[in-house]
Amino acid sequence: MRIGIRFGGAVAPGDAVLVQEGFAPPSGARVVGAFRAEEVRRFGHGIGCSCCVPRGAVAAALTRLFLDRARGTEDGSGDVVIVGDTNGEAAVRAAVAGDVLLRARFFFAPAAGEAAARDGG
After folding, report:
1. What is the model's pLDDT at position 76?
2. Which has the closest alpha carbon to 74: 62, 83, 65, 61?
3. Which residues pair with 3 in a beta bridge?
4. How far apart are the first and last CA of the chain?
5. What pLDDT, in 10s, does the model give residues 45-84?
6. Is the per-residue pLDDT at 40 higher than 60?
7. Quick count: other Cβ atoms within 10 Å of Cβ 65?
8. Closest CA to 29 of 46, 11, 45, 3
9. Given a cut of 80, is residue 38 above it in pLDDT?
10. Model pLDDT, residue 51
11. DSSP string spanning 44-112?
């Protein structure tokens, strides 16, 4: 059960929204967390393992959402929509890239325009 992550675009029923600090979520959206667009910290062991690197707000919110869906306490039908700018997108991509559990649980879904172009639409 991997969950898609999309950057911007329309929020459909069942989608969860993760909002970058300084941005407003779409009206009526189900917000699952907020985050700052900051660098993913790397210190401690060279590989930045979880024993030395605290998880940031992006990782915490995505983990909470995944576990809630797995337990059946949260609607599991939609994607996660990120509301923010390119710095926010970079922060989310870095958080997922740097966390083996997030990489296993989530994937980056193509934007609506990319999917239409890929499918010949």
Report:
1. 73
2. 65
3. 106
4. 27
5. 555 565 666 778 899 999 999 999 999 988 778 999 999 9
6. no
7. 21
8. 11
9. no
10. 64
11. SSTT--TTTS---HHHHHHHHHHHHHHHTSS--SS-EEEES-HHHHHHHHHHHHT-HHHHHHEEEPPPH
DSSP 9: S
Tell me, yes or no, if the pTM score tops 0.70: yes
Q: Which two tokens stand for residue 64?
A: 């909470």
The encoded tokens of residue 111 equal 């934007």
Rounded to an integer, what is the distance from CA 41 to the centroid of its chain?
Answer: 17
Q: Please state, in angstroms and rounded to a whole number, the distance separating the CA atoms of residues 90 and 71.
A: 29
Hey, which residues does 61 pair with through a beta bridge?
none
3-state secondary structure of 116: helix
Of 45, 52, 44, 39, give the one whose Cα is nearest residue 97. 39
**Distance of alpha carbon 117 from alpha carbon 121, whole angstroms:** 5
Q: Which residues on adjacent β-strands are paired with residue 106?
A: 3
Cα 57 vs. chain centroid, distance in angstroms?
Answer: 10
Q: Which of 13-22, 27-36, 72-81, 112-121 has the lowest mean pLDDT?
A: 112-121
